[in-house]
Amino acid sequence: MRKDEVRGLDHWIGGSPVAPGDGAYFESLNPIDDSLYSRAAAGTPADVDRAVEAADTAYRRNRDLSAAAREGWMIKASALMERDASQFADTLVDEIGSPIAKAGFETRFATSFLRAAAGVPRRIRGETIPSDAPGRVSMSFREPVGVVAGITPFNVPLIKGIKQSAMALATGNAFVLLPSEAAPRVADQLARLWEEAGVPEGLFNIVYGDGAKIGDALTGHPKVRAITFTGSSRVGRHIARIAAEGFKKYTLELGGKSPLVVCADADIEKAVAAAIFSIFMYQGQVCMGASRIYVERPIFDRFSKAFAAAAAKLSSGDLRDPATMLGPIISGRQRARVRQHIDDARGKGAEILAGGEWTGHVCHATILSGVQPGMEVAAQETFGPVTSLYPFDDLDEALRLANDTEYGLSAAIFTRDIDKALRFAREIESGMVHVNAPTLHDEPHVPFGGSKASGFGREGTEADLEIMTEWKWVSIQTDAAVGGAH
């Protein structure tokens, strides 16, 4: 495809495409072969300011719309998402190298989230509160915060784009999206979806560009009152400082080094299947990926052989073949990181039970054994199809090893012993825990998020109310009680 054949994506501001202020565009590449897929506006701080101002104006113009109106947008958007699922899936395949099965999961989740979000506008409720003052009526309201900024990652751009924008709109706010540079076209499709769903112009806006150059202009803008971010822990810490300085609300969903624990009494076949899904879905480019797998010593060899055999059979062919699980690593920089982690482990004595090789931009499903603390892969997030196996002797040791990390996003345990399962759920330092299931799971209404360096706050149709709205206390002194006892 020639560069002049690719239409540039302009910002979406105030309900219309808007060219970048300095006329510059950047290239988004298809990760299969790094061919040109699209061009998008390279945003400037001035572009960000224009988007936030448009959002603030639209918020003030539409803040008194009824719950029924916002409910209607969600219902219409869910129907449109269902109608256009194949178009969104095609973009996910070609823009971010998503196997079609994973792309289908994103479109189904987006539809489900929109349906769940349709109930949010009618749940934004306050309460009446007893007052110590005679004759005084005391009550509380939840009000929208105003302009919400969202920053989404490349790996699940549709899920995160829908999560962030739907909750902002459903709660009466305006929204400005800064999507990953690797996924601009998905964001453009979202803009068209919200427009067709009837969202008034200016309530949903997009500024494309390099987050390192314009991210601070967005998160630090004085009219942005809440921030929802998904990305690295390093950037999350930076955003938290900006939010604190500006007294802004924020939610951070960050990195992970998620443990999966397999006890000797586990169903090994199911545990292997869960491990395969937990680390190799979307070629390991998932924050909840089980990059550390702890197996009780009596079954360690048996599990290792079964897991390695299953990994060796994973398909890395046509991304539109439902059987394909492994696609390309997103970029040259990320490919170099995955290679470095594998090579460092190999060079320092780790054993490669499966994978370790590449076909083009596709890294084969890689399983390491004998990983030691000095290896990069031991503590750092690889964000690729690479996991490490470790033996343990009892649950005390498994918990100690699993908790020995700065991260705390997701964890899983396989056991038939309910006491072990419940103890693990209580003592693991993780925001999410799954028993006899993969580390990868999400639903629209659950409190999704992590602890420690894996995040701050929670996402979901219930949890997001904490950053998308704020409390207002109102008291009314009736005439009959004025001058009475206090």
Automatic annotation (TrEMBL):
One of the record's GO molecular function terms: salicylaldehyde dehydrogenase (NAD+) activity
Pathway: Aromatic compound metabolism; naphthalene degradation
Limits of the Aldehyde dehydrogenase domain: 24-474
Active site: 253
UniProt-listed InterPro entries: Ald_DH/histidinol_DH, Ald_DH_C, Ald_DH_CS_CYS, Ald_DH_CS_GLU, Ald_DH_N, Aldehyde_DH_dom
Keyword NAD: yes
The name this protein goes by in its record: Salicylaldehyde dehydrogenase
Organism: Sphingopyxis italica
